[in-house]
Amino acid sequence: MRCGRCSSVPWTEPDETCYWLVGQAATLWLRIKLRNYERSMKVQMEEKKNILTYEGLKKYEDELHELKVVKRQEVAQKIKEAREQGDLSENAEYDAAKDEQRDIEARIEELEKILKNAEVVVEDEVDLDKINIGCKVRILDLEYNEELEYKIVGSTEANSLKGKISNESPVGKALIGAKIDDVVNVETQVGVLQYKVLEIQRSSN
Fold this sequence. Notes:
single chain; 7 strands; two-stranded parallel sheet
C-alpha cells in the first residue's frame, strides 16, 4: 500500500536490519534518559545537607579516621598474607579480605559524602521555646498515658533504639516547632496518634 504523494516510490516491507536499527535507537534513548536521571539524583543527594549534632559529627569523624588509618592497613595486611599462601582461586581468606576491603572503601566514601555536606547544629544555641533539631523532649502518649523521651536529630543520625528520632520521621516532623503543653497529631497507618509536649531540653543536658 502506497500513499498518493509517494506513488512513484515502490513500497517494501522493512527487513530485519531496519527493525534492529530501530531497536538500537530505542535502547540508546533509554540509556541516555537513565543516565540523565542518575546524574540528577546524584546532584540532589550531594546538595542535600546532612544535619548533624556535634556528637554525631565527632562520631563520624572518628569512624572515618579509624577506617582510613587503622582498618585499611589491617585489611591490606590480610590480603598480603592470603596472597602468600599461593593459589587464590580457592583461597577463602583472600576472598573474605577482599570483601572486607570493598566494605571499608564503600563506608569511607559514604562517610566522606556525609561530612562534605554536613550542617552542624550548635546545641548550646538551640531555642528552647520550641522543639527543633538538637532538642531532647519529653512527651506524653495520650492514648496509653505513657511518657516518652526523644532526642531530635537529622535523618543521618537517627537511631530509634537509642531514642534518636529524625526530624523527617512522622513523630519528629510533627514535634518540630511545637511548644510545651502543645498537643501534636501524628498520622500513621494505624490512625492518628496524639502526644503532649511536657518538657524541652538541650540534648547535651
